[in-house]
Amino acid sequence: MELTKASPTQEYGAMLLRVSLGIMYLAHAHLKIHAFTLAGTAEFFATVGFAPWLAYPVTVAEIGAGLLLIAGVQTRWVALAMIPVLLGAAFTHWDNGWVFTATGGGWEYPVFLAAASLVQAMLGDGAYALRLRFARLGHAP
User: Fold this and answer.
1) How many domains does the chain divide into?
2) Are 75 and 120 spatial neighbours (Cβ–Cβ below 8 Å)?
3) Is residue 112 part of a domain?
């Protein structure tokens, strides 16, 4: 199978998805820190069956993923790494039903974001990405 170069439209589409996902991750980290507080987020994690301490690495992951996605650094790996976080979020809302406006929020939004992250991993960086690559040990960059 022959690979073809992506069109400018595809490159800009991948960039738009990448930046949108990055902003969304930063927004959710902001909510955890400023609206719910980290202690409150940890308490919520406990009520849905997760270890409370997981609130802290999840928030750090959201901040890191948001910044890396916006910059276009290791986009495929960052998007893939966040899928388990999103599926965990879907799990916490599963009993609330489909619609996110339901009391406690529904599961469709985090599942959609997991799918969007998978699509981002498949598409790659897109336009205006830093495209930093990390050298393997023992290999020249």
Assistant:
1) 1
2) yes
3) yes
